[in-house]
Write a structure and sequence with these properties.
Glutaconate Coenzyme A-transferase; 7-stranded parallel sheet; 13 strands; 26% strand; globular
């Protein structure tokens, strides 16, 4: 059973095989549940020409935003520009190719990719720039557009707990995009706050089964707050 042990001891090993021009899928929503140390390792490796698929692109100076600083991202597939001024600047200047995708559609494109479904029809986006160049069919009297699914070379994921075999539990809202991202990568890497022995996780609480996970690493996390508000 030792061959089922997914643990790796370094971030360099966790992202072994990541090269220029690959597609990277990243979990998280805003700064909640982002694989911040795996993102830092991508920056350290200096790979370029990446296509990154994530709900958004972090913030200036943190999360996926650091990859924009070093011009490592060629194309961003996201649903939200958000608080990242550099993301907005590179989008408007044409320096960064951006494919804006409705949030629910983005989640379903990843889920479908992980399930081996090549494409699906959705009414979301019909009649908007989202639908340009896409096949349209009518179902029950309503037009729908054909959306291709998404898969990637690497999927980087942030979990709460995992066991040696790669079974993962997410904590509260940090679940967000992480479970669907985990299914859609050719190589899925999960960083977690705690790794336990097999059998210690309640099977009914596992969100991502280990069959989807290739590597697990124990990390420590800053968990930065994206936008702090306080009462006056």
């Amino acid at each position: 059973m030792s061959g089922l042990d997914k643990r790796v001891s370094s971030y360099e090993e966790a992202l072994d095989g990541l090269t220029d021009n690959m597609t990277v899928l990243a979990g998280g929503f805003g700064l909640c549940g982002i694989p911040e140390n795996l993102i830092a390792e991508i920056r350290r490796r200096g790979v370029t020409g990446l296509t990154v698929v994530s709900n958004n692109c972090g913030v200036d100076g943190f999360g996926l935003g650091v990859l924009l600083e070093d011009r490592q991202i060629r194309k961003m597939v996201a649903s939200y520009v958000g608080e990242n001024a550099l993301f907005e600047k590179q989008l408007l200047s044409g320096e960064l190719e951006v494919e804006l995708t409705p949030q629910g559609t983005l989640a379903e494109k990843l889920r479908a990719g992980g399930a081996g479904i090549p494409a699906f029809f959705t009414a979301t986006g019909y009649g908007t720039p989202v639908a340009e160049g896409k096949e349209v069919r009518e179902f029950n009297g309503r037009p729908h557009i054909l959306e291709p699914s998404i898969t990637g070379d690497f999927a980087i994921v942030k979990g709460w707990k995992a066991d040696y075999y790669g079974n993962v539990i997410y904590r509260h809202t940090a679940q967000n995009f992480n479970p669907v991202v985990a299914t859609a990568g050719r190589i899925t890497v999960v960083e977690v706050e705690e790794i336990v022995a097999p059998g210690e996780l309640d099977p009914t609480q596992i969100h991502t089964p280990g069959i989807y996970v290739d590597r697990v690493i124990l990390g420590s996390f800053e968990k930065r707050i994206e936008k702090r508000t306080v009462r006056s």
